[in-house]
Amino acid sequence: MSATSSPASSSVPRTMNMNNASTTEAVVKSFEGFLSFVIGLSIFGASTFAVIVSDIANPSTISENPQFTRKTVRTFLGIAWLFFILALGIVALAMSLLAVQREHTKAGFDGPWRRTWERLGLLASSFIQLLVTVAFLFLSLVLVAYAEAVGWVAVAFTSATAVFTVLSLAVQWS
Fold it and tell me: Hey, CA dihedral for 120, 122, 124, 130, is it positive or negative?
């Protein structure tokens, strides 16, 4: 009787371990997809650098009562660029850590360090999401200077996205 129950009982933990490993790998793949998306988004955002150093139109020539001066618009563009670059840097660091973890650890992402890797991934994801959202908020404010109504709509949508992002991060961290 013990011979019959032994194979069945030994296969259950193996199946659970394989399910945990496949779930972990799926989460890592999803995180890598998120990082790849943010790379493209950050490269787009970082392209604002060319606008920062060029001669941009004065908002007062477009609108009678502009909300922001040219200097303020340039500052907003600079802040947006900085946040996109910071997000890009965190993505590069996260992708490097993922590669090192995969190549130099036999256990992969499972084992005693699993909880630490989960928290590091969540921390990186949180910073990236917040940086990109705030960068878009500053780009929306730039838009206010040139197309006020559209700019304020963009600010409203970006603010709503920021609130949703903060709430979802709060839920993930709890």
Answer: negative
Q: What is the C-alpha separation between 57 and 130, in angstroms, rounded?
A: 29
DSSP state of 105: -
Those residues whose C-beta lies under 8 Å from the C-beta of residue 67, and which sit 6 or more positions away, are 59, 144, 145, 148, 151
For tokens 């973890």, the residue is: 101
Q: Where are the domains of the chain?
A: 2-173
SS3 56: coil
Count of residues for the chain? 174
- Work out the number of other CB atoms within 10 angstroms of the CB of residue 119: 11
Phi, psi of 48 (to 5 degrees): -65, -15
Predicted confidence (pLDDT) per residue in 59-118, tens digit: 999 888 899 999 999 999 999 999 999 998 888 888 888 777 777 655 555 566 667 777
Q: Residue 63 and residue 147: Cα distance in Å, rounded?
A: 8
In this prediction the pTM is 0.73
